[in-house]
């Protein structure tokens, strides 16, 4: 019920006022509910799982932050020698 309601749209379910709006949202909810029922009967998951590449990875996030920080400082993240020279120049 919850997933079908979410699919049909909570706002639409709550605010349908006219008879036509009620029919439209009822059809949308029934369609979503039937699709979920069919998935359950076929042994499929009711919600799609995010693929592994879309899940949060702290290491990737950390690397992105480092690259952004380097770019803000005018350092090319792909040029290690340039970064070293800039850093050495700061301490001379």
Keywords:
92 residues; mainly alpha; 2 domains; 5 helices; elongated
Notes on the structure:
With 92 residues, the chain is mainly α. The chain folds into two domains: 2-41; 58-90, no CATH class. The protein has helices at 2-8, 10-15, 19-41, 58-72, 80-90. Helix 1 crosses helix 3 (19-41). The chain is elongated, with a radius of gyration of 26 Å. The model has no long low-confidence stretch (mean pLDDT 81).
Annotate the secondary structure layout.
Layout: H1 2-8, H2 10-15, H3 19-41, H4 58-72, H5 80-90
Q: What's the gist of this structure?
A:
This protein has 92 residues and is an all-alpha fold. The protein has 5 helices and no strands.
Provide mean pLDDT, rounded: 81
Structural class: mainly alpha
Q: Tell me the strand percentage band.
A: under 5%
Can you count the helices? 5
Shape: elongated
